[in-house]
Amino acid sequence: MHHKLVSTSTISRHLHEYGYKNVLPQCTHMLTSDEKQQRVQWAKKHINDDFNTTIFTDESSFQLFRNTVRRWAKNLNQEFKCSPKNRQKVHVWDAISVKGILICHTFRCNLDGPYYVSILEDYLLPAVTSE
After folding, report:
1. All residues at 6 or more sequence positions from 109 whose CB lies less than 8 Å from its CB, including other chains
2. Where are the domains of the chain?
3. Cα(first)–Cα(last) distance of the chain, in Å?
4. Percent of the chain scored above 90 by pLDDT?
5. CA distances from 52 to 39, 55, 96, 104, 108 (A)
6. Residue 36: pLDDT band with limits 50, 70, 90
7. What is the pLDDT of residue 64?
8. Which stretch of 28-42, 68-82, 114-128 has the lowest confidence by average pLDDT?
9. Other Cβ atoms closer than 10 A to 83
10. Least packed by Cβ within 10 Å: which of 8, 57, 85, 130?
11. Residue 128, C-beta contacts closer than 8 angstroms, at least 6 positions apart
12. E strand or H helix that includes residue 33
């Protein structure tokens, strides 16, 4: 039995020579270049605004079993990762101001118009009126 040390770059180079590629699952960009530019323009336009009476809200989702592990593959279209049928997912909605975090709300249902209105009524309004 031989015990030789081989560097990661050597292994990577040989795998590449054999036609493998180091890949992550395909994903889409969150913002297009135009959308990023529009946000920069908005920020420049409002750089001197007084945000003392402004509240920003946002929502995000967090999901278990997302594939973020890189691997070597020759046939990228044949690469699959098994995942549970019903993934564990939680959504977070929050509101912030210059004073800090106003409220943070977690939920599991899909965020549609009526539910968003209920979040504003049940969470944002009480947080704002208690200030």
Report:
1. 91, 115
2. 55-130
3. 72
4. 40
5. 20, 9, 11, 20, 32
6. very high
7. 72
8. 68-82
9. 12
10. 85
11. 55, 102
12. helix 33-45
20 Cβ partners below 8 Å, 6+ apart? 72, 73, 74
Tokens at residue 50, please?
A: 């007084």
Burial, 93: exposed, middle or buried (Cβ in 10 Å; 0-12, 13-18, 19+)? buried
What's the pTM? 0.58
Give the residues across from 106 on adjacent strands.
Answer: 92
For 2, 11, 55, 75, 118, the CA distances from 113, given in Å and listed in that order, are 65, 52, 19, 42, 9
Average pLDDT of 71-82? 68
In order of 6, 10, 25, 71, 72, the CA distances from 15 in angstroms are: 13, 9, 18, 11, 8
